[in-house]
Each structure stands twice: as C-alpha cells, then as structure tokens.
Amino acid sequence: MAKGNEFSGRLEWRINVPDGTSKTLVPESGIIQKSCRRLQDVVVGITLRIWSFLHKAWEIGVNEPKKFFHCLKVGMALSLVSLFYYMRPLYDGYGTNAIWAVMTVVVVFEYTVGATLCKCVNRAMATFLAGSLGIGVHWVANQCGENFEPIVLELSVFLLAAAATFFRFIPSVKARFDYGLLIFILTFSLVSVSGYRVDKLFEMAHQRLSTIAIGVSICIITSMLFCPVWAGQELYSLINRNLEKLADSLDGCVAEYFTDDGTKEDSSKNLQGYKCVLNSKATEESMANFARWEPAHGSFNFRHPWKQYLKIGSSMRNCAYCIETLNGCISSEIQAPESLKKHFNDVCMRLSSHSSNVLKELGNTMKSMTKSSKTESSVREMNFTVEELQSALKSLPYQLALFTSPALEASNNGKDEAPTEPSKVPLLEILPVTTVASLLIEIAARIEGIVEEVDELANQAEFKPASKKGSKEPAK
Amino acid sequence: MAKGNEFSGRLEWRINVPDGTSKTLVPESGIIQKSCRRLQDVVVGITLRIWSFLHKAWEIGVNEPKKFFHCLKVGMALSLVSLFYYMRPLYDGYGTNAIWAVMTVVVVFEYTVGATLCKCVNRAMATFLAGSLGIGVHWVANQCGENFEPIVLELSVFLLAAAATFFRFIPSVKARFDYGLLIFILTFSLVSVSGYRVDKLFEMAHQRLSTIAIGVSICIITSMLFCPVWAGQELYSLINRNLEKLADSLDGCVAEYFTDDGTKEDSSKNLQGYKCVLNSKATEESMANFARWEPAHGSFNFRHPWKQYLKIGSSMRNCAYCIETLNGCISSEIQAPESLKKHFNDVCMRLSSHSSNVLKELGNTMKSMTKSSKTESSVREMNFTVEELQSALKSLPYQLALFTSPALEASNNGKDEAPTEPSKVPLLEILPVTTVASLLIEIAARIEGIVEEVDELANQAEFKPASKKGSKEPAK
C-alpha cells in the first residue's frame, strides 16, 4: 500500500512494508538531490575522519606529554636558528651558507638525546671527512689537466658513493654510522661537483663547518636542557614496564583458566600485556643503540651496560612465547573437566603467583637498582612449587580413579573393550590440564633465564647490595 | 731457581716454576720493547678486525648480489646528476640551486623501488606545499609592516614546525608521510627565512622545484630500469621463504625428538628457521608499506592486497611461537622413556609431516599464484592425523600397563603404597610426550589459521583456480 504525504514542506511517497514500517519512495528524477546527499555523505565522512584523527592526536598528546614537549622543542630550536639568520651582521658574514644551520637543525633534531647526539656526531664527522677528501680529490683532478679533470671527479664520485652505500648494508655499521655515510656521500658529491666551479673551496668548507657547528650546538643544548628524553631512561622504563606486563599476563592467563568466567572481563586487558613484550624488540634495539651515545644521566653512568638490557629483553621474549602458547591452549576448544581443574587449581595458581612474584621482584631490583635479597628466596619458592606441581601430576592417577564420571566410563566402554581397571583413565580429558601444567613448568624455567640476565646486569652495572633489614620487612 | 741464558742474541732471565716449565723474566727497563710489542698487538688486532669486516662485506656481496648492484646504481645515478651539473649551459641557468638535484639523488635513492617512489612523492609534494605556504606566510608578514614581519615569520615557523613534528608521532601518518613532513618543515623554514632576504622568491621556488624534478626523475629511472628491486616482490619472497622455513623447522623439531641422536647435526640449521619468522615482523611491515607505492610489476597489479601478506605473516608468527615452545620442551631435562616415545613416534611424525605438507602446499599456492586443489586434501589429512593422535592419547593407559618397566614400578612402590593397579601409571614420565603431542595439535590448529589467511589472499588477489589434472598428478 502506498500513500502520499506532505512532510517538512515537500511531497514524499511512502510505501508500507510487511513488517509494519514504511519506506520513503525517492523519485528517480532527483539527480540533484542524489548528488547533494552523496556530497553530504562525503563531507560527513571526511569530517568524521578528521575528527577521529584529531582525537587520536589528542590522545597521544595527553598520554605522552613528552612527545608534546618534543614538538615545542623542535619549534623552539628552529625559531632560535632562524633568529640567528635574521641578524644582519651574522648573515653578511655567512651569506647563503647560513641555510645549512637551519637544515642541520631540521634533520638532526630527534626525539631522544642519544639519537640527536648520534646524528650530530655523524653529521659533523662525515662532513669533515668528506670535505677533506673532496678537496684532496679535487686537487688531484686539477693536476691531471683540464680534459681529465671531469673524468677523475666523476670516477671518484661513482666509486666512493658505491662503496659508502655498500657499507650501509653491513648491520654493525648501519646501526651506528648509517646517517654519517649518507652525509659522507652527500658532502663528497657536493664538494667535488661544486669545486669544479667555485675556486674558494676552503672558505666554503670553513663556512659550512661553522654553520653546521651552530646548528649542532643549538640542537644539543635544546635537547639536553629542556625536558630531555634520554634513550637510556626510555629503554630502562620499557624493560621495567615489560617485566610488570609479563607478570600480569601470566597471572591473568592462569586465573582465567582456573577461576569462573565472572572475572574474565577485568583481566582481558592485563592478559594481552605479553604481546607488548613480543613486539618490543625493534624499539629495544634502537634505544640501546642510541643510549650508547649519551653522557651520564640519572643513575646511569657513561659506560652503563646497555647491551645487557637487550639480553634481558630477549629472555623476556622467550618467556612471552611460552605465555602466548599457554594463552592459546587455554582458549582451545577441548577443556578439562571441572573436577580435574580443581585438583590443579591450588598448586597452579600458587606456581603462577610465585612466578609472577619473581618477575615483580626483578622489577623491584631494576627500579631500585639494588640487588634484592628477596629474589633468591622467591626463586626458591617458585622452584619448590614446581616440585609440588610435579608431585601433583604424579599423584594424578590416584585422583582419576575418584574423579572418573559415569558418562566417561560409558563412552570409553562403548569404544573399546577395556581389559583391566586402568583403561578407564580418560587421558585425552586430562591432556589440557597437564599441558597447562607443563607449560607453567617451562615458563618457570624461562623465568630463571631472566633472573640470570638481571643478575648479570646487576654485576655489570654494580648495583648496590641490598640492606638486609629494609628489604626483608617492608612497611605495612 | 733462576738462570740466565743467551737466546736469539739478547740476554734473557728465566725462572723455573714448580710445574717443570720456565718463565722468561722480562727486565723492567725494556720499555721500548714493551711498547713495541703492545704496538704490534694493536696493529695485529686492527688488521684482524679490518680483515673480518672485509670478509663480512664480501659475504654480503656474494650472497646478495642485488645489494651489490644497488651500490653501483647509486654511483651511476650520482655520476649522472653531477654530469648534468658539469654542463655549463644548464649550470648557468640554475646557478647554485643545481646542488639540490645532487642532494635529492643522495637522499631519495633507496634500496627498493617502492621506498624510492615513496620518498620521491613525499619530497616533491612536501616541497610544493611548504613552498606555497611559505610564500603565502611571507606575503602576510610583509603586509604587517617591517616591525612585525620577523615576529610573524618566527611564530609561523614555530607553530608549523611543532605541528608537523607532532604529526610524525601518529603511526598511520609516520608510516607513509614521515619523510614528507620532515621536508615540509625544512622547506618552510628555508623559504620563510630566506624570503626575508631574497626578493625573487618565485624564481627560486621554480628553480628549486625543477632541480628536484631532475633529481627525482634520475632516481626513478635508475631504480626502475636497472635490476629493479621491488618491495612487493621482496615481501612475497620473504613470506614464501618463511613458509618453507616454518615447515622445515617443524619437521626438524619433531624428528630430533623422536629419532636417535645421529641425525641431530644435519637438522640443527633447519631447526632454527622459525626464528627468522619470529624476527621478520618489522621487515614485513616496511616492505608492505613501500609495496603500496609501486606500479604493477611481475605478477602483481597496482592494487595487489599487500596488507593481506601482513596477516599471513602474523598467523605464521603465531605458529612459530608454538614451535618455539615445542623446541623448548624438546630440549628440556625431563625426557620420556624410549618405550613411550616409540608408541607416539609413528603418529607424531606423520602429524608433523602432514602439517609441514600443508605449509609446503601453501608455499606452492603462493609461488604459482594458483589456488591449489591439494591444500584442502592435505588439511583433511592433517586433521585426520590429529584425530589419530588424539585416539593414541586415549589408548595410552592400556599401553602404559604394557610399558611400565620394573624400575619405574620399584620407584613408585618405594614412595607411595599403591592401593590399586592404576597407581603405577607414571604420569610425570609421560608428561613430556603428551605435552609434545598437545603442542603438535595446537600447531595444527594454528596452521589452519595460516590456511585461512592464504585463502583470503587467493580471493583478494584473484588467484587462478587450479587445473585439476595438472596439480593432482605431478610429473615424476
């Protein structure tokens, strides 16, 4: 049934559909209306996208104010360097070369102090080396006569650029001098090319180096004096955070498996923490790389063993792989009977809590940079609980005799003719629990690996020994 | 006892130590000799380091000739662009701005075509946008009078640099436009700063853009015409290689556990293949990111679903986590008795070989870009073997009655007074095997996850359906 009605000033056709509602019949001729609506959709879509983008940006600003300060610092450094450019006496001295100071600030200023220092040192050294080499090659080319000069220069550019590019592929070189090699190629090409035209090479080199020095010093001062972000400190916090996350997700995982579904909602966020550990390899490596360039800061001296943090990170990832598998087993379809779970509930929960205690104790060691006397005892507790779990596994067959439900018996009897009593043990049903138990044992073993690496760090970085009274009896 | 003897022309004091040997007593006055020796050590050390470095470089060159060609290409592009600089008529037209062409080539030329294109587009667009904006701001500042001009310019540099730096923190922007934002800050600062001095801004902008255009076209031509390295192709090969490695390490792992130690040597290299899968996340992401910029090449069209490769990679990593845990369990201290292993040997080996067959079949699908009719049947076989393994686990208790060795019985009897027959099942002893079995079942489930993602890719990329005859009966 169709009816026409007047609504909001224009004629509209509505059709009543069987479920009781009515639909508007849009006249086919309304191309303008159609395109209007389409345009409206596009505008709404774009507005929504911009809104969500700004929302995301706002969240980053609120959650990580350091990043927000970094942006202000970049603006400040650039304003400083362009202020220098506006001062006429300086400008008259340096001419158009002053743009190199601006360029240096833009390219060299990085989020962490270490990265900035790394780029500064790379840029300064590479410019100096390539400049000297360029002038040398230029002199040699000059001696070869006017005909051979371009050939010598071209050949040298080809060879040095190819060689420097090749070095950038070698991992150990790439980690430290990638930017330096890029600047080396750039400066060498510019010097050897421009040298063919401009005769006052030495003056240019002098100006270039001093403008770069100005840019570099503005960068270093700004990045070190105003809210500095130290790569070392970031690496240290990352490892600490990851230790906590690992402990939380281990606890969450085991709790989710052994307790009722009621608490699942709360733990689901904590549970995913191990994924951060799995994905933080690249960040750890770059931070450790930059931290090496940093001077002493906070509780870290210049030769702090940053490489050891990578080993700790790697042993933590080893543990996270196991938690990932555990998580997979827990959410698998085959679930153990509740009665069996109850048998293991207590000891597994205790093992996971002791294991995560060890992780938390390691976190305390890291945070206070003090050898904790409690680590050893909590590792002992963990290992003791591992033994308890093993004996719980040993005693399982006795328990099974008590647990075996009539339903299981029936299904087993249906398939095979059981010759003797033991045939009633439904091994497939206990498999999930034993796998969880055996993964927990493996996780405990891998946590000991983390303990070893943290101990090694404590030795290398000369952590203070624990004051026995203070650490054994915390204030309540 | 000490004695003096003449050896090789100089006086030497030797002291006989209790173990029968004698030590040379070095006279304290021989500072020159000492420092000579130290210098010698240093020289030898440096030589060895340089040698090992060159050896490593040589290995990279031999193993990955593509990287070697890339270096030649960079050299070639730079020679080309500096050749352009040498031509006097061009030089006279562009003046010192010609260095921007050289700079563009050095900074923009990357290993893969996609990365080069990404940087080229970023650089060109950012220069254009920032240039226009810079000229606009400069005009506004001009209108404000001589006193306010520097203030307006400084403020605009500060605000735009801070905003652009902030956008670089947003992951989705960083992935695609990081370089563009850097160039935006650079160009805007340069234009607004130099605009204060140079009045012929438009001419400069024109020259800058055309030199960048020259640099960009040289880069694109060189990187696309001479031995191009496509990011898409690299990603595709990486995923294929990883599928093979995953299959090999699964096979190797299970074989190492169930067969005798004789074959361990051969498989240890294959066994570690899953580690490549664990560590290739960053590479996959950057390759997929660059591949989106590439035109159609090889069997890939412009809108090839590169993002789906990331999903395949992620599901492969999921599987690799499990293999990592499996590897840990296999090398754990508690080992199952040989008799038990034999019971599972056959079915576990078959499951691992069927599982790795599925992986290899997926590899074939990817390689031929043809939907394989065999995948489905090999998944069926795998799942069938999973069921077989499950029934082997079910039947384990009967077997245990046969296997239980007198030694085990004795040890069990010693600890506990067994009330009935079933108490003799040594569950702790069978735990390693059941864990391995249950991990194999979990791995099979995760392999199905990979199958789903590859199927999705086959749909999205419209792989050809298999020709039934050809794929079912391969030539022998």
UniProtKB/TrEMBL annotation, chains A, B:
GO terms for cellular component: membrane. GO terms for biological process: malate transport; monoatomic ion transmembrane transport. InterPro entries: ALMT (IPR020966). The keyword Ion transport applies. Its main location: membrane. It is a multi-pass membrane protein. The chain crosses the membrane at residues 68-86, 98-117, 124-141, 147-167, 179-198, 210-231. The keyword Membrane applies. It is found in: Membrane. Keywords: Ion channel, Ion transport, Membrane, Transmembrane, Transmembrane helix, Transport. PANTHER family: ALUMINUM-ACTIVATED MALATE TRANSPORTER 10. Belongs to the aromatic acid exporter (TC 2.A.85) family. This is Aluminum-activated malate transporter 10.
